[in-house]
Design brief:
By secondary structure, the protein is α/β, with parallel strands linked by helices. The chain folds into two domains: about 15-330, Up-down Bundle (ABC transporter transmembrane region fold), CATH 1.20.1560.10; about 340-580, Rossmann fold. The chain has 18 helices and twelve strands. A six-stranded mixed β-sheet has the order 6-9-10-3-11-12, with helices on both faces. The protein has a four-stranded antiparallel β-sheet with strand order 2-1-4-5, with no helix packed on it. Bound molecules: adenosine-5'-triphosphate (ATP). This is ABC transporter ATP-binding protein/permease.
Length: about 575
């Protein structure tokens, strides 16, 4: 009675329903491979039939040797050997098909999930640590892909195997069949009881893996700081702490698995021994032949292995549904708003330039902390407009709003063409912006490849022109391979100021009407900084340039300066500006 109550509780706590939804999601990927999967199942069943025929042939052969049906001997030997060879052959084909489909499904799922993840709303995705995303993208995708191909076919083939073997046993001795079936309800009830605990442990292990991955990515991308602050011992200790936690979680899960395995194996052993005792008894009483006895023993082994593979589907099901759950969570995050149609009308005015406007905007990342409140802003074509203010007051937040990565909680953020037509800033207006973020954003490849990322068909001359405007060509031309010089990830091999100028050149090559420079000239000397900004305005007419800066040298080039402080964005008057600049 108690166990029935537990089962009902498990069903009610929703883990079965949750798993069913996750299963359906995984299977949606397998749908595209119906034909291959059906073929795989067919081969699996065929191989089972071959093995059964081979077992029956071996029974006959034993009967021949022990004095029965002597005339059938050569035929039985041929059948037995050829069936075993057939089954070997089909086993190899199946393994080949499995790997082929598996790689294709894995690539499919990975590509699909990758597209979905990069299409997710920036703010929602930014809440996940990059190590966690990497772990989900790597290990969870591969688990789901393996299950999409292996799961259903394996269940079907194992059930077929079980039933076919059962039929053979029933044909020779129905009591044996009953003994075999005792296994089933016991195994099913115990696996059901294990399910929710297994899911809990599995989730814990996966979360731990994500934490470790996050720690590793963070450590290796901040090696400079770790070494310069002499933090190597600290990070070594942290790694060991993670390893201890990892060990603890995994060992806990392993202990649980061992306990459940022992219970299931004991049940299996009892049944198998009952089976054996019954077969010996039947042989002793002369009801079966030696051949039948051997057949029962091999079939009992086959049935228990078919049953174990059915039971082992349970932990792998838990593992893959948890992976599916983690991936579903990522891809079900809200997608970016791409109101493509709204910005259709802007296409023709690109060469005339655009204005960017904020109208009475409020924004907060989290409810408790307002970042921008009742603020307005305007930057027009042929203008350099500065955003200044103390650190952490919201300058980068405003840049994210211009890029349509963030939307105001209230008020309007719009792009405006020369005729005054306005379009709300969103993911599809992003193409009208060139952005140079804070920090190093160079990718591995050559300098030319880095620039061509934003304009695939750019000629060498266009690349050189952009590098010249960004004052980068003066050092690039001195390099032995010029624009084809290799750059390491994050600009390795170049100084910060050089990497910044390559990033600016890339933004210039994109030739978008609006250029956003977020502290993008911070590593340049004052002279080069001024030269870069002057070049942009002179050589690229109708551009709107918005810069965030802490340096007064840039401010003198700006038509307007906005200060962000204490949630307010306010335009500085000339006197305020002079006062502000003198306080630097
Ligand atoms: N992804 C985020 N989630 C939650 N809060 C954030 C996030 N990014 C920034 N903030 C908060 O928003 C505020 C403004 O940050 P922002 O990066 O816009 O400042 P900033 O003026 O550009 O600073 P700095 O001059 O140092 O670059 C800060 O208090 C910061 O803690």
């Amino acid at each position: 009675m108690e166990s029935i109550k537990i089962i009902i509780r498990k069903i009610k706590d929703g883990s079965i329903k949750e798993m069913w939804d996750e299963f359906k999601w995984m299977m949606s990927y397998a749908k595209n491979y119906k034909k291959e999967i059906i073929f795989y199942i067919f081969l699996g069943m065929f191989s089972t039939v071959m093995t059964l025929i081979s077992s029956i042939a071996s029974k006959e052969l034993i009967d021949v040797v022990t004095g029965h049906k002597i005339s059938k001997a050569p035929l039985m030997a041929v059948i037995m050997i050829s069936m075993s060879l057939f089954s070997l052959f089909f086993g190899s084909i199946m393994s080949r098909i499995t790997i082929k489909i598996n790689i294709r499904i894995q690539n499919d799922i990975q590509a699909d999930i990758f597209d979905k993840i990069i299409g997710v709303n920036w703010l929602d995705l930014s809440k996940y640590p990059s190590g966690d995303i990497l772990n989900r993208f790597g290990s969870d995708v591969s688990t789901v892909a393996n299950s999409a191909i292996g799961w259903v076919p394996d269940i079907i083939v194992s059930i077929f195997n079980f039933i076919a073997t059962l039929c053979v046993v029933m044909y020779y001795d129905p009591t044996m069949m009953v003994l075999t079936l005792i296994n089933a309800p016991i195994m099913l009830i115990s696996s059901k009881l294990m399910m929710s605990k297994m899911r809990k442990y599995n989730m814990k292990v996966k979360e731990m893996n994500s934490e470790v991955m996050d720690f590793q990515t963070e450590t290796f991308s901040n090696m400079d700081s770790i070494k310069s602050f002499d933090l190597t011992d600290l990070f070594s200790r942290r790694l060991r702490d993670f390893q201890d936690k990892y060990k603890e979680v995994n060992l806990e899960y392993n202990l649980f698995s061992i306990k459940t395995n022992i219970i299931l194996s004991l049940i299996g052993m009892v049944i198998q021994n009952l089976f054996f005792v019954w077969a010996v008894y039947r042989l002793w009483t002369g009801n079966i032949t030696y051949g039948e006895m051997t057949l029962f023993m091999t079939q009992s082994g086959r049935m228990s292995s078919a049953f174990s593979s059915l039971v082992s589907i349970i932990p792998s099901t838990v593992n893959s549904t948890i992976s599916a759950k983690r991936l579903m969570e990522l891809i079900s995050l809200p997608r970016e708003d791409r109101a493509e149609d709204d910005c259709e009308g802007l296409k023709d005015s690109v060469s005339h330039g655009f204005s960017v406007k904020l109208k009475d905007v409020d924004f907060s990342y989290v409810k408790e902390k307002q970042v921008i409140k009742s603020s307005s802003f305007e930057a027009n074509r042929n203008e350099i407009v500065a955003l200044v203010g103390p650190s952490g007051q919201g300058k980068t937040t405003l840049i994210r709003m211009f890029l349509g990565l963030l939307s105001p909680n209230s008020g309007e953020a719009v792009l405006c063409d020369k005729n005054g037509e306005e379009v709300t800033l969103n993911a599809s207006t992003r193409k009208y912006f060139s952005y140079v973020p804070q920090g190093n954003t160079i990718f591995s490849g050559t300098i030319a490849q880095n620039l061509r990322m934003v304009k695939e068909d750019a000629t060498d001359e266009e690349i050189i022109e952009a590098l010249e405007i960004a004052c980068a060509y003066e050092f690039v031309k001195e390099l032995p391979d010029g624009i084809n010089t290799k750059v390491g990830a994050r600009g390795r091999g170049f100084s910060e100021g050089q990497a910044q100028r390559i990033s600016i050149a890339r933004a210039i090559l994109r030739d978008a009407p609006i250029l956003l420079l977020d502290e993008a000239t911070s590593a340049l000397d004052i002279f080069t900084e001024k030269k870069v900004l002057n070049n942009i305005i002179k050589q690229k007419p109708n551009k709107t340039c918005i810069v965030t800066t802490h340096r007064p040298s840039v401010l003198n080039l700006c038509q307007r300066v906005y200060k962000v402080e204490k949630t307010k964005l306010s335009q500085l008057s000339e006197t305020e500006f002079e006062e502000f600049a003198s306080n630097f």
